[in-house]
Amino acid sequence: MNTRSNRMQIFSDNLSDLNIMVLSWKEKNEVVGFIPTMGNLHEGHLSLIRKIKEFGATKTIVSIYVNPKQFGPGEDYAKYPRTLDGDIKLLEKVNVDCVFCPSDKEIYPPNVESQVMINKLDLMDELCGKYRPGHFDGVLLVVNRLLSIIQPNIAIFGQKDYQQYVLIKNMVRQLIIPTEILMAPIIRENDGLAMSSRNSYLNSNQRSKAIHLYKSLISARKKIRENKIDCKSILRTEIERLNKIGLSVDYLEIRTSDDLSSVKEYKKKNDEYVLLGAVKLGKTRLIDNIIL
User: What is the mean pLDDT of residues 3-9?
Assistant: First the structure.
C-alpha cells in the first residue's frame, strides 16, 4: 500500500509507483539521496539525512526494513526494536520526501538469486565477520537489492559501521552500480557512547560500562600517536583493561582507513588508519571506531 503523510510519500509495495516517482525526479535534475535503515530511528539516523543533503541531495528516500538475512542464529532479529509509527513522525519533521517500508517478498521475491555475485574480500570474514559469520553476505544482498529498486544518485552510511561501508563501496565498484557511496561521522551520546538502536538493550549497570570502549579507543589513539611503544602492546593493554571492567572484547585493532587491510607497522599519517573495536555486554554487542 502506498500512502501520503503530509508532503512525504510512503511506499510499502507497488514498486512501479516508486520507480516512476524517482524517474520523474531525475528528469527534473533532482539529486536522489538514499538512507537505508532498519528503523528504530535516533539522532544518528537523522544526522545521515542532514548530511546527505549537505552532499547535494535534493530529494531524500529513507528505507525502513529489518533484514532477516544479516542476523545469525541466536541473534536479535525477533526482538529488534520495530517503531514504524514513531519513525515516520520523525522523518516528517526532517522533511524526508519518501519512506520505503518493503515487505520480505518485495526484497526477497521467490525465485530470485539470494546472493551477490562478486569477488569477496577476505575482509568479509575478519573483524565483525569473524564473530558474525554470514552477516555481511546478508548486508550486501539487501543493499544491492535496495539500490537496484531505488536507483539513487547517492547513498549514505554511518561511520560506526565502518567495515560495512568499506564492503558496500567495494560491491558497488565491482558491480558498476551508478550510485556514489558516502560516509557520515559517528553521532555520540553526551558521554561519548556511539548512538545505536542496540543501546536500548543495556541495563543501567551495562550502560555505565559501555562508554569504556570509546575511552579505550581514545586512550589507544593518544598512545599510538605518541609512538613510544608498539601498537600491539598498546592494544593488548586496552583489551585487558576492558575485559577486567566486564566488557568481553571481540577485537580491538588498527587497520588502514581505505580498505581495512592489516597494519604491520604504524607510520604517523593523519587519516591513514582507523581504530576499531567490538565488545559484548551481556547479550548486547557494541561496535565503535575512531580515525587516527
Answer: 71
Please identify which of the residues 42, 45, 135, 212 carries the catalytic annotation. Answer: 45
Q: Return phi, psi of residue 280, to 5°.
A: -115, 135
Q: Domain containing 207: what range? A: 197-291
Asked whether the whole model's pTM tops 0.85, one would answer yes
3-state percent helix, strand, coil for the chain, nearest multiple of 5: 45, 20, 35
214 has a pLDDT exceeding 60: yes
Residue 189 lies in a domain: no
- The C-alpha angle 248, 253, 257, rounded to 5 degrees, equals 140
| Claim to verify: residue 39 and residue 172 sit in the same structural domain | yes
Look at residue 191 and tell me if it is in a domain. Answer: no
Q: Could you give phi then psi for residue 3, rounded to 5 degrees?
A: -135, 170
* H helix runs in 69-203, sequence order: 84-93, 104-107, 128-131, 135-150, 162-175
212 tagged catalytic: no
Do 171 and 116 contact (CB within 8 A), yes or no?
yes
